[in-house]
What we know:
By secondary structure, this protein is of the alpha+beta class. The protein has helices at 14-25, 56-67, 78-86, 98-107, 153-163, 195-206, 217-224, 242-251, 278-281, 285-314, 336-356, 359-379, 385-399, 404-424, 426-442, 459-466, 501-518, 520-531, and strands at 3-4, 7-8, 33-40, 43-50, 92-95, 110-114, 120-123, 169-176, 182-189, 237-239, 254-258, 264-267, 444-445, 448-449. The longest helix has 30 residues, at 285-314. The chain is elongated and about 105 Å long.
Amino acid sequence: MTILGDIVKVDRKVDVNVNWIMQELGVDQSFDVIRRDITLAGRRATLFYINGLVKDEIMTYILTSFSRLEEEDLTPNAFLKVYKKYVSYIQVEDLDDLHKAVDKILCGEIALIVDGFNKVISIDVRKYPARMPEESDLERVVRGSRDNFVETLLFNTNLLRRRVRDPKLRTEILQVGSRSKTDVAVVYIQDIANPRLVDTIKEKIKAIKMDGLPMAEKSLEEFIFRGSFWNPFPRVRYTERPDVAAAHIFEGHILVMVDTSPSVMILPTTLFHHLQHAEEFRQLPLIGTFLRTVRFLGVIASVFLPPLWLLFSLQPELLPPNLAWIGPKKLGAIPLAWQFIFAEMGINLMRMAAIHTPTALATALGLIAAVLIGEIAVAVGFFNPEVILYMAIAAVGIFSTPSYELGMANTLMRIALLIGVGLFRLPGFVAVTMGTFLLLMTTKSFGLPYLWPLIPFNGSALKDIFVRPPVPLQKLRPRVLHPLDLDRQPYPEPARKPLPREAAGQQEKRQQEKEKRIWPEFMDDGDEKREK
């Protein structure tokens, strides 16, 4: 056996290869690692595979075809005849490194080792335990598809290709983790996505030096955005809906899929991406705009309504005379600031309890929270009724936030505002608000400003944020993503006389020079790609 660095060359003696794999996989110690010795046209051969990860019917068919082979059937060029003729299956690969063969076995493939062959034949007959696509609990819609992503990477790419039948769609596979060897797919449309952004994401993924990704996409996110761990605002949007993923990839975004996770990462994103929901685009534009407006108001109320009410209750002189009714009619046994803090902790505790509560008991948990805790706390004088009211409104606003990660970040922001108001009144409210705004201004997702199109200001893009644009009017991709192909729909050509050939060529040249002045760094990439 020849060992060259990390490469272990396949030996022509079957016993040498089998003994190495036996020791590497611990076949005698692991009950699910199977070794099967067979005879292939008079030659000794061995199969290695993981029990439960292979398709039994296909392997039975292949073994049956092997049993009919005679020695003269493999002469001459025995390896090529077995590889190209007698392994009657589609996904077959030859390997000259035993390390790669072991990786293939652990992925669920079958490794065929034959005496006299200096290569291992890997047969991809994987069958992962998987659930069927079903609607996500986090992104439900009244109308729309119900086939959401699952934990199997191949299923997820198939769901996406069903919606994006573009030959330029690329699904590049990478492996992360020296022990877990987790499959990570970077998905993009080649002639739309910014190639520099694609390369940056792939470089960050390849640079990960870790034994495994136990939490899949969340572990990967922390490696990608290394250096800003304590920023609570999400710079990655997660989705479990293939239609949402397809809509973003058409705009020029890049998807990152991690095997064993149904959540797909969308890069790059802004704050407003986390406030959009598929339901808005499943309704008419006016209804979609109404839903979006209500959602925005709910999110704003969830962050600022309780702190503002607390501020006006502690400093009623800030209110104009016609709003003097705002504030508690009577004080409870606990100071107002502490009432909000305790109510905040109680709501989040109930949220966590609901996640771990069986479905059959979830209704009982809601009754306990609403009746036994809420009403009794008000009745005995611990809490003011207004505190319960405003915290309930805030909770509804958080639950209406499409992004769970943004909802948790808004919860932390609301708690910080309550603490600031409770300690310093108006200066505390202003300081926390300004600090959060500065944090949002300095946050970027792969160079994309987090508050775009508000900062830097882009009027037309900002209008599309607040008003759901009709699909026929969505003619351009977001310029901030620097897509190679900016147009989504062709513009109608104005009626004019046909130009002579020389004049038409000069006009095309002027147009190219104009585009190169606007996007110099990206036009160069596009020219190089076209030349190739």
